[in-house]
Amino acid sequence: MRICSRNCDLARGRRCDHVNSRGIVCCPEESCMLRLCLAVAVSVAAVSAAFSQSDPIAARRDAMRAVSSATRDGAAIAEGRAPFDAAKVRSIFETYSRSAKAMPQLFPEDSRSGGQTRAAARIWEDRPGFTAALAKFDKDAVQAAADSKEVASFRAAFDRVAANCTSCHEAYRTRR
User: Fold this and answer.
1) CA 15 to each of CA 11, 24, 115, 169: distance values in angstroms, whole numbers, following the listed order
2) How far apart are CA 26 and CA 34, in angstroms?
3) Is the dihedral of CA 130, 135, 138, 141 positive or negative?
4) Rounded to an integer, what distance in angstroms lies between the CA atom of residue 67 and that of residue 138?
5) In this predicted structure, what is the pLDDT of residue 175?
6) Mind listing the GO molecular function terms for this protein (predicted)?
7) Residue ranges of the chain whose pLDDT lies below 70
8) Domain 55-172 superfamily per CATH
9) What is the pLDDT of residue 113?
10) H helices of the chain, where?
C-alpha cells in the first residue's frame, strides 16, 4: 500500500488525485513549497544581479579576478606545468571573451573613484579607445580558441591574447 503525504490510501485500486501518472506525489501543499523555494531562488538571483549593477567597481573587480584566474591556468599550460586540455583551453578563452564583452558596461561615469578602484581617468576620457581595446581582446580570444589545437598553437595564441592585457593595463589602469 502506497500513501501520499495527504494520507490517501492508494491500495483501493483508485488513483489518488495527489499523485501524478508516474506515482510522484504532487500534493498542493508540496507544490506550494516547491513554488516558494523556486521564488526564493529567483529572488536571490535578482538581488545579486541588482547588487552587481549597483556596484560596478565590485563587478569589474570580479570580472578581472576571473580573467586573472584564467590567465594563471593558461600560463601553467603554456609553461608545461599543466597538461594541454582542449576543454580547459576553450574555457580560458571563453572567460576572456565573456569578460571583454561585459567590461564596457562596468565603467559607468559614476564609478570613477571609490571602492578601491585602479581604473585610470583615461577610461572615461578616451572611451572609444578603451572600448576598441576590449573589442580587440574579445576578437583575439575568440580567434585563439579556434586556433588552439595543441600546445604549440596554444602558446602562440595565449601570448597574443595576453599582450592585450598588458597594453590595456598600461594605458587604462593606475599604478599602485
Assistant:
1) 9, 12, 61, 67
2) 10
3) negative
4) 12
5) 87
6) electron transfer activity; heme binding; iron ion binding
7) 1-53
8) Cytochrome c/b562 (1.20.120.10)
9) 83
10) 28-54, 56-78, 86-102, 122-125, 127-147, 151-172
